[in-house]
Amino acid sequence: MATDIDLHLGRRLRRRRRLLGLTQQQLAVQIGIRFQQIQKYECGANRISAARLWQLAEALESPVSYFYDGLAEAMERKETVAAGREAFSRKETLDLIQAYYQLGERPRRRLLDLAKSLHAEGEPVS
C-alpha cells in the first residue's frame, strides 16, 4: 500500500521525467532497470530506496532534495482535509447544518452574522 510520501515522490519523479522529455523506457535504461519499475515508482506502488533515488536524481539531473520539495505542505493539506472530514462526520455538526438549512433566508443570515461576531471577539473555533 502506497504511503503519502511514496505518492509524492512518484509524482515528482513523473514531473521531472516529463519535463526532460524522457519516456519511462529511456529513464529505465539509464539506470539499469525495466520501465515497469519506473511505472511502479511513479504511481507509488513500489517504494524508492535511497540508492535508487540517488540514481534517479543523477539521471534526471536534479538534486535528491527535488523529490521532497513541497512534501511538508502536501502533508499539512492532507491533515487539514482529514480534520474537516472528521468534523463533518460528527452527529452534532450534521444536526447543526440540517437545522441551519431549515431556517428561512433572513434568520440564516442573522445566525451566520452572530457566529462570525462571536469568532471575531476571540472565541476559539474548534
What does this structure look like?
- The chain is mostly helical.
- The protein is 71% helix and 0% strand.
- The protein has helices spanning 4-19, 24-31, 35-43, 50-59, 71-89, 91-102, 105-120.
- Helix 1 packs across helix 3 and helix 2 crosses helix 3.
- The longest helix is centred in the middle third of the chain and has 19 residues, at 71-89.
- It is elongated and about 65 Å long.
Characterize the biggest β-sheet: none
- The gyration radius over C-alpha positions equals 23 Å
Could you report the average pLDDT, rounded to the nearest whole number?
Answer: 87
| Secondary-structure element order, N to C | HHHHHHH
Binned strand content: under 5%
Taking pLDDT < 50 over at least 5 consecutive residues as the criterion, the unreliable ranges are: none
Helix content: over 70%
Cα-to-Cα separation, first versus last residue: 32 Å
Total E-strand runs: 0
Provide a count of the helices. Answer: 7
The SS-based structural class is: mainly alpha
Shape: elongated
